[in-house]
Amino acid sequence: MSARLNARRAFYRLAQLLGGAVVGQALLSAANLAAGVLLLRYAHAEQYGGYVLVGSAVALLGALQAAFVGPPLVQRLAELPAAARRALAAGAWREQRRLILQVLLIGAPLLALAALATRASPGLAALSAAALLASAAALYRNFHRLLLQFHRRAWPILCGDMLYAAVLVLGILLSCRLPGAALMATLALGAAALLSGSYGARALRRDAAGDDASRGVLRQLAPLGLWSAGGAAIHWTFNQGYNYLVAALADVGTVGAIAGTRLALMPVNLLSTGIGSTLLPLTVDSLQRDGARRTLRRLALMAGLIALLALLYAGALWLLRDWLFDVVLRKSFAQRDTLLLLWMLAVVAAAVREPLIYLVVARQRLRALTLATGGAAIAAVGTVLLATPRYGAPGAVGGVLLGELCSLAAVLFLCWRECRPARVAPLPGMEMTT
Fold first, then answer.
1. Which residues, other chains included, contact 282 with Cβ-Cβ below 8 Å and sequence gap of 6+?
2. 4, 70, 139, 151: which has the fewest C-beta neighbours closer than 10 Å?
3. Confidence of residue 13 (pLDDT cuts 50, 70, 90)
4. pLDDT digit string, tens, across residues 234-273
C-alpha cells in the first residue's frame, strides 16, 4: 500500500512539474512571439535583424552555461543528502556570480576597444554594450531557474516566467515607439531576465547554505561540463550561428527575413526546449530506478507527443500563413512559403530530438554526443556557406534543416547504443565513458 501511495505521489509531482513547465513555456512562447511580432510589424527589418543577432548571442551564452553546469551539477545533487546539496548549489552559484562579474569587467573594455578599432557607429556600440548586460542578466536568471527545476518548485518557476513575460512584452511595446528599437528591446530583455532571476533567487533563499558553500565546484564539474558545453557551442553554430553567416554573406535584412518566417514557429520550439529542460532530473531518477530501456520508452512517448503537437500547429500555420504575414506581421518576404516549409521540417526534427537527448546526457556520454554534434554542424555550416550565395535565404535554412536531421540521426543511434544488453548497466558515476 505504501509503495502504491509513493508511486501516486511521484506521479502527481511529475504531473505538476510538467504541467507548470507547459504553462510556463506557453507564457514564454507567447511573450517571445509577441516581442518578435511587435518589432517585425512596427520597426524596420534591420532593427529586428539586430535584435535577432543579439538574441542569438544571448542564447549561446545560456546554452554554454546550461550545458557546462546543468548535467554534471544535477547528477551530483541527486546523489547527495540535503545539507550537502545546499552546500554544492550555494558554491556553484558563488562561482557563477564571480564568473558573470568577470565577463562584464573583461567584456566592457574589449567592446570599447573593438568599437574604436573598427570605427563602429555609436548605435552599434550601444547595442553591443546592452547585449553584454542582457547576457549577464540571462545567466543570472538561468542558473536560479535550473536549481528551481531540480528542487521541483513548479510554482516559483511559473511565477518567474510570468514576471519575465510581462516585463519583456511591456519593454518591447515601449521600444517600438522609440528610435533605436533594437537597443531598447535588448535593454528590455535584460531587465526581464534580471527581475525574473531576482525572484528565483528569493524563492531559493531557504535552500542557501551560507558559509558552508562548497569550493571549487566549477573545477569539479569541468571534466563532464567541458564536453557538454562544447557540444552546445557546436550545436549553436548551425541552430543560431547561421544568422552571423547570413549577415556576412548577404545582409542584416536577409537575417530579418529568415528570422521572420521562423518566428511563426517559435511556440513549438520553445515548448519542446522548455519541457526538455525539466526532463534532466527526471531522467536521472528514472535511470537509477528503472534502467535505460524503460527510460527511453518514456522519453520516446514524450517526443512523439511533442512531434504530434508540432505537426498540428504547423498544419494550422500553413493554412493561415497569408493572414499571418499580410495582416498580423504586415511583412512580405521573398520565397516566404519555401522558407516556412523548410523551417517546419527543421522544427519538427528538433522537437523529436529534444527529449531523447536527455537519455544520452544522463548516461554521461557527452564526448560521443559532442563528436556527433560536430559532424552535424560541419554538414550544416558547409551547406550554409555553399548554398546561401546561390539560393539566398532558402539555402541558409536548408543548411539548418540538414544539421537538425543529422543531429536527430546521431541521437537516435546513441540512444539505441545505450539500450543494448551490454550497455544497460546502472547509471555510471562521474567518469567519462563513450
1. 14, 17
2. 4
3. low
4. 777 766 766 777 777 766 667 767 777 787 787 777 666 6
CA distances to 271, 307, 378, 388, 409 from 406, in Å: 22, 17, 10, 19, 5
Instruction: Please state the three-class secondary structure of 293-313 as a single string.
Output: HHHHHHHHHHHHHHHHHHHHH
Helix axes 393-418, 366-391, angle to 10 degrees: 160
Residues 6+ apart with CB under 8 A from 248: none
Which element (helix H / strand E) includes 330?
A: none
Residues in the chain, total: 434
- pLDDT tens, residue by residue, 72-125: 777 777 677 777 777 777 777 777 778 788 777 777 776 666 655 556 566 677
CA distance 379 to 369: 16
Instruction: Return the biggest CA–CA distance within the chain.
Output: 73
Please give the DSSP secondary-structure letter assigned to residue 427.
Answer: P
Distance in angstroms (rounded) separating the CA atoms of residues 130 and 136: 10
| Alpha carbon distance 133, 218 (integer Å) | 23
pLDDT computed for residue 15 by the predictor: 53
* Alpha-carbon gap, residue 55 to 33, rounded angstroms: 13
- Type of residue at 193: A
Helix (H) or strand (E) holding 264: none
Could you tell me if 199 and 160 are in contact, meaning their C-beta atoms sit under 8 angstroms apart?
Answer: yes
Contact 76, 430 (CB under 8 A): yes
CA gap 283, 140 in Å, rounded: 25
Question: What is the reported pTM?
Answer: 0.65
User: Helices 252-263 and 45-79, interaxial angle, to 10°?
Assistant: 60
Chain centroid to CA 164: how far?
A: 15
- pLDDT tier at 192 (50, 70, 90 boundaries)? very high
